[in-house]
Amino acid sequence: MPTAKLFLHGVPDSPLIWRPLLAALDLGDTPVAVPALPCFTGPLPAGFAATKEAYADWAVGEAEALVAVHGPIDIVGHDWGALIAQRVAMLRPDLIRSWAASNAVIDPDYRGHRIARIWNTPVLGEIFMALSKADKLAEGLAAQGMPADIAREEAEQWKNKDKRRAILKLYRSANGLSFEHDWARDIDKLPANGALVWGEGDPYVELAVARRFTANTGTALTVIEGAGHWAIAERPVDVAAALRAFWGGL
For each of the chain's 250 residues, which pLDDT tens digit applies? Predict the structure, then answer.
């Protein structure tokens, strides 16, 4: 029976971002789950704290549900989804056959990009969110390589005020993407069956971060040349080839 797959999206995305890659992977009868991070496509669930720990716990629950039916899974994450996927693998290696991270990684020396630092700053982050418009977001995402139709659909989700509030809570719980004092201390708990797939020209998490992680851990790295942060949607055929090669070697 094919190994079930769990795909976790990042910020400011939704499950829509996986559409090109899933089409390229053509997984057939493989069980696949592509959930929305809580509050990213709807209102804030009652009692949900929207911290990094809350999202990690939620993702563990998603993995547990798949494993209960299908056995250990392959988990794949992009951006914040990559960080959460790695955290799930650290916390519950029993659930995971393999993990793959695209354009984000838990690294003790990374300190976040400019927008992450803005979102991490009280008042400044709220002003940014208040002034941020969906049409401008769509233009910006498309300019960075995201397919224009997906960029427009993703921008519609940006109108959800709860989503923007949740993003601020998430980034502030991570001190603007600094994991030196918590999650990064558990890197040695990551299962060995891991891989990185990276858009070469990522302006948010530079390729040097992936190369450093690979040098420190021995994790395989595939670089998607000419792609940016959203390589999973910009160059889905190449990313699919990398994932199939990785899974095929397990």
Answer: 799 999 999 999 999 999 999 999 999 999 999 999 999 999 989 999 999 999 999 999 999 999 999 999 999 999 999 999 999 999 999 999 999 999 999 999 998 999 999 999 999 999 999 999 999 999 999 999 999 999 999 999 999 999 999 999 999 999 999 999 999 999 999 999 999 999 999 999 999 999 999 999 999 999 999 999 999 999 999 999 999 999 998 9
DSSP per-residue letters across 102-113: ES----TT----
Range of the domain at 103: 5-109+182-248
Residue closest to 11 by CA, chosen among 182, 177, 147: 177
Q: For tokens 């790695």, what's the residue?
A: 86
* CATH code where residue 9 lies: 3.40.50.1820
The stretches of the chain forming alpha helices (DSSP H) are: 19-25, 52-70, 80-91, 114-119, 124-131, 134-143, 148-157, 161-173, 207-217, 231-234, 236-248
* Token couple for 180: 């030196």
CA–CA dist 168, 172 (Å, integer): 6
Which token pair is 154?
């993703």
> Counting beta carbons within 10 angstroms of the beta carbon of residue 169, is it exposed (0 to 12), middle (13 to 18) or buried (19 or more)?
buried
Q: What is the DSSP letter of 16?
A: G
| Whether residue 12 has a cis bond before it, omega within 30° of 0 | yes
- Tally the domains of the chain: 1
- Residue 27: exposed, middle, or buried by beta-carbon count in 10 A (0-12, 13-18, 19+)? middle
The 3-state DSSP class for residue 8 equals strand
